[in-house]
Amino acid sequence: MSVIASEYPVMIAGTGSYLPERVMTNADLEKIVDTTDEWITSRTGIKARRIAAEGENTSDLATKAAENALSQAGIAAADIELIIVATISPDTITPATACYVQHKLGATQAIAFDISAACSGFLYAMKMAKRMISDGAYKNALIIGAEKLSAFVNWEDRNTCVLFGDGAGAAVLRRSEEGEGRILATEMGTDGAQTGILNIPGGGSACPTSSENVDQKLASLQMSGREVFKLAVNAMKNASEKVIERAGLTADDIKLVIPHQANLRIIDAIADRLTVPNEKVFVNLDKYGNTSAAAVAIALDEAHRSGRFERGDTIILVVFGAGLTWAASAIEW
Ligand code: UT7
């Protein structure tokens, strides 16, 4: 006998974010590496980024973002049943950063684990949490993108250190009721043939940090920027188009596109190809740089809190990162 499972629709009930206090401007970077504000601004759009304090860990940033999301959703930590943290800069390799967050929040009923999908992690987490709610396993979930990338940046490498920053963004997902919004469709992809163009080569089991290699700073982000750039534009454009089509929408139905915040030139290229006007595309990378898994989550929260969309509007989130990985989601708010 076949059993047809009922699928519960899932909505985002609240968003939150947290940025560390310390601001590092392009002028500050000019004192550390051979770069200029002019180069960074014209090539990336980034003007500043936040840097976590010593002793302020990824789980601390994640917990603060989560508290803000819970408070907006009006859901108590005790009622959260699932916590997924997307990060490439975990507090420790094991246990998962989500376990520290579970304890710090007092979300004692929640199962908690991390996922590693780089800048795409928040949307990968959203897809997993949505599935686990829609099949009836859980009612309330917390997804968090959180990064302390300053701990994994080679501060002597101008190709990368000017790009990244620290921060966290979170969303509470729950079953949606009649008349409420819902996550309409998600499109995801991975190309494991491209692991070499954006990675942290050292510090894992393939290349543990040792006294012999410690000077090579292998446990830091490395990127072939130009290659990543081209693939990012194509992958994000294709994922956005697919998710718009699968949700039965046209570009005109979209109130706001919230893309991964890596480079303003990438964002402009995607907007052009999707024929979405610039005012319908959310940008905050000038303030925070690229915060990997946290970037789209922080942008979602800022766009939400500043009234860039409201109940009933349809938005598109689209991301791209190491792996290579990419994803897009269409959400009716
Ligand atoms: O979040 C995950 C996804 N990541 C991305 O999407 C990032 C994608 N890539 C990019 O955003 C861009 O490729 C970068 C911003 C990383 C680089 O911009 P670019 O226009 O591709 O520059 P480039 O790498 O081709 O470098 C151009 C020049 C080089 O000098 P030469 O070889 O032409 O003499 C670099 O050495 O700029 C030089 N350069 C710098 N100069 C001043 C590289 N970094 C810097 C710097 N300041 N910080």
Keywords:
Peroxisomal Thiolase, Chain A, domain 1; 2 domains; 5-stranded mixed beta sheet; 4-stranded mixed beta sheet; 10 helices; 31% helix; binds oxa(dethia)-CoA
Description:
This protein is α/β, with parallel strands linked by helices and 333 residues long. The protein folds into 2 domains: 10-175, Peroxisomal Thiolase, Chain A, domain 1 (3-Layer(aba) Sandwich); 182-332, Peroxisomal Thiolase, Chain A, domain 1 (3-Layer(aba) Sandwich), CATH 3.40.47.10. The chain is built from 10 helices and 13 strands. Strands 1-7-6-4-5 form a 5-stranded mixed sheet, with helices on both faces. Strands 8-13-12-11 form a 4-stranded mixed sheet, with helices on both faces. A two-stranded antiparallel sheet has the order 2-3. A hairpin with a 3-residue loop joins strand 12 (314-321) and strand 13 (325-332). Helix 3 (58-73) crosses helix 4 (97-105) and helix 7 (225-246) runs parallel beside helix 8 (264-273). The chain is globular and about 60 Å long. The mean pLDDT is 96. Oxa(dethia)-CoA binds next to helix 2, helix 6, helix 7 and strand 12.
